[in-house]
Specification:
Layout (H helix, E strand, L loop, with lengths): L1 H6 L4 E3 H8 L3 H13 L3 E4 L2 E7 L2 H9 L3 H18 L7 H10 L6 H17 L3 H17 L3 H18 L4 H16 L3 H17 L5 H13 L4 H17 L3 H14 L1 H4 L7 H6 L5 H11 L3 H9 L7 H18 L2 H14 L7 H16 L4 H15 L8 H14 L3 H18 L5 H14 L4 H17 L3 H14 L1
Antiparallel strand pairs: 1-3, 2-3
Helix pairs in contact: 2-3, 2-5, 5-6, 6-7, 7-8, 7-9, 8-9, 9-10, 10-11, 11-12, 11-13, 12-13, 13-14, 14-17, 17-18, 17-19, 18-19, 19-20, 19-21, 20-21, 21-22, 21-23, 22-23, 23-24, 23-25, 24-25, 25-26, 25-27, 26-27
Length: about 500
């Protein structure tokens, strides 16, 4: 029986925990283990005399595999009870406790198991193990829903939403769960939290290129206009700014984001609006980042970068990843390779690619772009960027696809590969038709003018294409791309 219990803990187990689960005194436990030591099945850990371990993991596996399912389920619950008794409140055992309660199945109280899975998910997220956190929190929400525990289910979905926002991985199942969370919040009379979930659902729709994203933005905008809640009003303005950014109307987008900023901060100052999602992500979530990008596109790159620099917190890996993401995006739009390279070097040095967020995929794109435009094997950088795009952004199509094809075209031009650049621009145009997101159209038109120039086309054709890029950018108030078009025209003489 002692061997059966020990097999549940992996290679090593503390004698105190083993004796508690087996229901014997520690001295009796040590005495009964003596024959097992003599048989060479167990040994005392050389680093800790109160810990025993299997001499080989094959021994442990053979014992575990011969155990009946009924016994295994009962032992899982006994182990969970022992962990709760001996390590109550210890976050270090949260994931082990959740595992044993989940494996105990119907023998464990579903509320207890769901709560344990939530604690385990929270701990995993704090260690930046987002995939593990995502799995545990989905299990918690599923178990709570099956048991009819609406409050507990909403709490699990709230934590899951925080993980998703940080990981930035919006897939179809999580979008359905966000709809479910909004329903739960409204049913429970927590309207402020329902508004948070509706807004984050919109963020997911734009990140995942959902077809109905514009309808969602319009609904949220109308809701904000009729609401007296300052955060809901800010959400409405931000939703409309995101819609206008998506359709390429940069001036209107910029003004909507500025309007959202003017009404949003007041909401967080009052307790009734202090929701878990707002504490984690600010008011209203991603809005400040979008505001920074549209500020740059509107022509004020310096202010945009200064604003993003306020998020630079060296001790916070998530904050530094967000800083790198927005800094490199803005600088690439401005054509500033030095700023992109500096931010990417710091991001790589910190090792934040291990977080495996969608933001990492984008930062890698900008890193390739900076390499190509500074002469660091441009063809290899462009090929790597294409591989990254295909692997992470293409299926399903993610936010900004047309812009990243435009950047890859710019890389191929730097490598002198005009045919490859032309193919990338064709893909960019196709992405504009399929996905929208016309904020990058001024950049793509500018790359078409540069492609004509690189192919040695007549100056009149190059000038006409550059003037088209300028006219489009001026009309949409994309002053950043307009200025780049003017520089190209000036260089033509």
């Amino acid at each position: 029986e002692l061997l059966d219990v020990a097999a549940f803990f992996g290679r090593e187990i503390g004698l105190r925990l083993l004796s508690h689960v087996a229901g014997v005194e520690p001295a009796d436990c040590v005495e009964r283990l003596e024959p097992l030591h003599a048989l060479g099945l167990l040994e005392t850990s050389p680093d800790d005399p109160s810990t025993v371990r299997f001499t080989h993991d094959l021994v442990r596996e053979s014992i575990f595999e011969t155990m009946t399912q009924q016994l295994a389920v009962r032992l899982h619950l006994r182990v969970a009870d022992a962990l709760d008794h001996l390590h109550a409140g210890d976050e270090a055992v949260a994931e082990r406790l959740a595992y044993h309660l989940w494996a105990a199945g119907p023998l464990a109280d579903p509320a207890r198991t769901a709560a344990a899975l939530m604690r385990a998910g929270h701990r995993a997220a704090s260690k930046l193990a987002y995939q593990a956190a995502d799995r545990q929190l989905r299990l918690s929400a599923q178990l709570a829903r099956t048991a009819g525990l609406m409050d507990l289910e909403l709490s699990a979905l709230t934590l899951l939403t925080i993980v998703v926002r940080r990981h930035n991985k919006y897939d179809s199942p999580i979008l359905d769960l966000l709809d479910r969370a909004e329903y739960l919040a409204r049913t429970l009379g927590r309207d402020a939290e329902a508004a948070d979930f509706r807004f984050i659902r919109l963020m997911g729709a734009y990140t995942a290129n959902e077809k109905d994203r514009r309808a969602l933005a319009s609904q949220l905008h109308q809701h904000g206009q009729s609401s007296t809640d300052p955060t809901v009003r800010a959400y409405g303005q931000t939703a409309w700014g995101l819609h206008k950014w998506d359709t390429g109307h940069i001036g209107e987008s910029y003004r909507s984001f500025m309007a959202a900023d003017s009404v949003g901060p007041d909401a967080a100052a009052t307790p009734e609006h202090d929701t878990p999602l707002r504490r984690d992500g600010g008011v209203p979530g991603e809005g400040p980042g979008w505001r920074a990008v549209t500020t740059a596109l509107h022509g004020d790159v310096a202010t945009a970068l200064t604003f993003v620099d306020t998020w630079d917190q060296p001790g916070d890996p998530y904050a530094l990843t967000v800083w790198a993401y927005y800094t490199t995006m803005i600088a690439s739009m401005a054509g500033d390779t030095a700023v992109v390279k500096q931010a990417c070097d710091r991001w790589v040095e910190a090792g934040f690619g291990r977080l495996h967020t969608l933001a990492d995929d984008y930062v890698q794109q900008y890193r390739c772009w900076a390499r190509a435009l500074t002469g660091d094997d441009p063809a290899a950088a462009a090929a790597e960027a294409e591989q990254l795009l295909t692997a992470s952004l293409l299926d399903p199509p993610q936010w900004g696809l047309a812009y990243y094809y435009g950047l890859i075209a710019e890389m191929w031009l730097a490598a002198g590969k005009t045919d490859e650049a032309a193919a990338s621009l064709e893909r960019a145009d196709q992405a504009l038709r399929d996905c929208g997101q016309r904020y990058a159209e001024g950049h793509i038109l500018l790359m078409r003018a540069r492609l004509l120039q690189a192919r040695g086309e007549p100056a009149t054709a190059v000038r006409a294409a550059a003037e088209q890029a300028l006219a489009w950018s001026v009309q949409r108030e994309a002053h950043l791309f307009a200025e780049r078009a003017r520089r190209l025209l000036a260089n033509l003489g």
